[in-house]
Each structure stands twice: as structure tokens, then as C-alpha cells.
Amino acid sequence: MCGIVGYIGNKNACEVILNGLNKLEYRGYDSSGIALNIDGKIEVYKYKGRIKNLEDRILSLDLNSGCGIGHTRWATHGAPSDRNAHPHTNMDGTIALVHNGIIENFVALKEWLINEHGVEFRSETDTEVIAHLIDHFYNGDLLDAVYKAVGKMKGAYALGVVHCDEPGKIIAVRKDSPLIVGIGKDENFIASDIPALLKYTKDVYLINNDEFVMLTKDEIKIFNENRQEIKREVFHVTWDADAAEKEGFDHFMLKEIYEQPKGIDITLNRRINEKGAINLDGITITKEDLDKINRIYIVACGTAYHAGLIGKYAIEKFAKIPVEVEVASEFRYREPFIDDTTLFIAISQSGETSDTLAALREAKNKGARILTIVNVVGSSVARESDDVFYTWAGPEIAVASTKAFTTQLISVYLIALYMAEVRGTIEKEYYDLVLRELKALPDKVEKILKNAEPVKEIAEIQHEKQHAFFIGRGVDVTVALEASLKLKEISYINSFAIPAGELKHGPIALIEDGTFLTAIATQDHLYDKMLSNIQEVKARGAYVIGVAKESNKLIEHQADKVIYIPDCIDEVTPILSIVPLQLLAYYIAVMRGCDVDKPKNLAKSVTVE
Ligand code: M6R
Prior knowledge:
The protein is α/β, with parallel strands linked by helices and 609 residues long. The chain has 3 domains: 3-244, Aminohydrolase, N-terminal nucleophile (Ntn) domain (Glutamine Phosphoribosylpyrophosphate, subunit 1, domain 1); 252-439, Glucose-6-phosphate isomerase like protein, domain 1 (Rossmann fold); 449-591, Glucose-6-phosphate isomerase like protein, domain 1 (Rossmann fold, 3-Layer(aba) Sandwich). Helix content is 35%, strand content 23%. The strands form 4 sheets. Strands 3-2-4-1-10-9-11-15 form an 8-stranded antiparallel sheet, covered by helices on one side. Strands 5-6-7-8-12-13-14 form a 7-stranded antiparallel sheet. The structure holds 5-amino-5-deoxy-1-O-phosphono-D-mannitol (M6R). 5-amino-5-deoxy-1-O-phosphono-D-mannitol is lined by residues 301-304, 348-350, 353, 356, 399-401, 485, 489, 605-606.
């Protein structure tokens, strides 16, 4: 969601900020803008639409400034428009600010500013109140005014603020929305995420909640909420700018699908030592800790939630501990049974998802131990957890999550096996078998990716359909859910997933001539039942795509087309069967002319509720 970039230094701030905003495009946005401090005046340019729109209007103006802030907005309060785009200013335009988050008490603040101080608002946003609040408290010291304004605000915010009378300064503050500070030589930066800064620096400070930052081109000072200066260690980013480029692929999504063998290999093999034992680097849970645990909650959103469902399957099967899986937006508002015998596992690619973070805090406050599976190093979810297991998928830019998902699956299997071994709930032979099968996955995924042609052909036949169904049994239900989410979010096809056994309880009423239905049938013990389900939908006219192991050929007699995955044990099929279905969603979306990497209405990182 919204992206922030700020620059102060000797370079052309406009160019640096536009470059950074382009790198944050993946977060999702509908307008963009920039404010520059030029000769003691704040100049603001902001427009609805793509960043290109902003660039087309300002690049020819030759704006010369060494200090500014920029923003990509994902509309929450007020429709996407030039007026509602950030930066927002106070009435006389001396202060400008960019904001990521939501100010929950903005209505009361707005009324107070209008009624008591005669402020005239120019937008429908919650953000504009902050500019007027800072103005209200400004007395020659921007940092002081921001402290006082923040004291009145409730909600989530990462802010970048400039004042025309303090041209060599940017003030930033963070609460529940991501913010990092980039460290340069004779220049410094703020941003919502690392890709915005990689062209200029790999050294950053990770800013925590309720911390304030004052940047000049020569120094960075971080303060806590009591205005005491604090020291922060430099965080050195290990991946380079290329990792966030398309490298010859048409889309980030396709590149990321093809990066899966590598992501799976790294996530897995670096956690297994020469003796074949699992070593969960960031996790310190001992046998005594596990013996105390009565209940596990896995909480996440979207694709990460689907990884959680497989996590339940693996932990219950191998480690014999009951697990509940819940979407974070529901978990945080009910009263789950949590105490110090609860293990709470959060799964998140970005580590900044607002609902997941709130659920984590809720569980932590009630005494649960927090373990997270997360991709972004140093993210909020990672920092607030007791134990962290990084997925090492590398940066995922496309809104549709692919390589994060398969590495999350590897992570839950490893954690489940580790728990099982520590608790003594798994036979050595079975443990070795599962591990061997996991190790074979990178090559098997590679094999699927090298044989994408049949998937492309299916996309050719089906891409004009308006509806799609995915069915499966056992772990294949989760694959159906994930494949369906992938398809709907990037192709806008109305798609849904159901356990095959539920067909007769309602959904089969929707099957008619030509219905596009994918039947995932990878589980040996459920294979015959799936074949019967396929017959039932075929009898009602469905066009069926089967997904099966390559030695299970009987399905060819039932389905119209079959996608085969390499043979493997039933337990690990989701990591293979999801791959061709990611490709199917991708090709269908491309054939429908959709903006695959930036689907409409969606953001990569959902940092507001
Ligand atoms: O960053 P997170 O893993 O916490 O994000 C969770 C969901 O927003 C995310 O998986 C979303 O569902 C993706 N667009 C799915 O492709």
C-alpha cells in the first residue's frame, strides 16, 4: 500500500524520489506526488494515475532541489484524484507531508481544526489533518511540532515531513506502518521499503514504532517517544538491485515462478546439516518448551493463510499437536483461548501485513510464544517475534505471491518435522523419507517449469471463461484454494474452490456445458474418489483439467486435459501441484490483457486494515 520516499543531499531530489517511487510501484497505488523544497518554497506536484503521469508533467520543468518527499497513494479515505493525492500541505503551503497508514480519529481532529481554528480543507483524506495539526503546533522547530501533532493522533502512520523554513531537514516518524532510513555519504533517505533505496545505498536503519527521525544530508538522529536520542545498529542489505529487476522476463510474476527451485533449495538445504538433521537457525524452541504447548494457532492472510493450512496438516501429522488456522482479520477480533501454553505461528511474506501484526500482538499480550515464518528480513512481524524462520525466497515484487508460498510450505514442513523429532512422535524411517522427498523438490519443480507448453495450451482454450472452479480432497483442497486465489486476483475471473466432497451439497448446481473446472487429484488414497467426482461434473458438461502424479494415468479417461506432476509421496504434493496452476493463472491473465504484476484494487503489502 502507500509508498513513501524522501531524499536530502547533493543529488537532484526529484530524480532520486521518482526512481524510488517507481521501485515501490509493486505495493499498489492509484496516484502519486512529490514535494520539493526549492529556494525556500515548497512546490507540490501530484496527480491521479501512474507515476508516468507525474513524470510526464514534471521532468521537463527541470526542478532543482536537494530536499523533498514523494508518495504513491492507495486510496482509503477519498477517491483516487489529484486533490486527494499526497503530499498534503497546511493552508499557506509552508509544510508538506506524505503519509502511509490511517488516522482513526481524523473526523474529530478535522472538526476541531475547522471549528476552533478556521482551517479550510482541500481534500477528503484523513492525512490532510496532520498537515494542519503540525502547522498548529509549529513554532520554528519542525521536530517539536511533529511530536506534538503525533500526540493528538490515533491510528497507524509512517510520515515524512518538510517545512520551507527548514530546507535542510526531513522529519519522519513511524507507528504501525513500515519506515526505513537509508544511510548515504553527504545524503540520506527515507522509504517504505528497501527496493526504493537499493540504487543508492544498502545500509539502512530499521525504524521501530513510536520513533522519530531527523535527517539532514550529514546526519541522522533517531529519538524515542520521550525525545531521547537512541542509537541504532546499521542493517546491511545483502541482496542487490538486480534481485528487484525483471531480468528478461515479461513480468515479475513469471520471473518469481521460475525462481522457485532456487528459493526452495535455499530455504531447505541451508537448514539441513551433513548428518541430515534439521537446524532451524532462528528458532530456539526446546523439547521442554514444546512439552508445555497445548495448542498452536497459525494466523495469516491470503496466500500465507493457505500455507498455514498445509502447516496444520504437517504439524498434526508429524508432531501430533492440535493446530487451529485462522485468517488474521478474524482472529484479532474474537476471543481465542490463548495463554502461556499457546504457540502462535504467524506467516507473512512482507512481515508488514496490518491484520497479521495486530493478531500477533494480541497473542503476545496474552502470553503466547510467537514464532514467525517471514520473508522480509527486519520486517515488523520478524522484529516482534520470539523466534523467526526466514523463508529466503528473495524479494517478491509481483502482487500475486508465488515463490513466497512454496518457500512458506517448505518452512512449515521443516518446522513440523523438527517438532516431531524433538517430541519423538515420528519414526526415523518416515522422517528420513519425508526429508529425502523434500530435498528432491527443487529438481522436480524445475522439470515442471521446463514443460510449460501444455499449461499454455490450456490457457489458450480457457482464457475467455468468466467463471472457474477448483476442486480437490485432502491437501489438494488447499492447493485448490490457492490456485483459485491466484487466478481471480490477476485475471479477474470469478473463481472459487471447494472440497470435491462438497460438490453435491450445493455447488454442483452451477455446473453446465463448458464450465471450466480444475480437479486436483494427487492424493493416492483419494484418487478413486476424485475420479468419481470428475465423472459427476463431466456428466453435467464441465470441461475438466486434471492435475495428477505422472504415474497415475487413469485420469486421462475422465478429464479433458491433464497436467502431470512428477511422482512423489502424498505429503509433499502441494509444492509441486501449485506450480503449473500458478503458470495457468499467469498465462490466462496475460491472454486476457491484464496488468499481471499490478492487478487492479490490490496492493502487495496490506499495511492498513
Ligand atoms: O505479506 P503477507 O504474506 O502477509 O500478505 C498476505 C496477503 O496479503 C497476500 O498473500 C495476498 O493474498 C497475495 N496477493 C496473494 O497472492
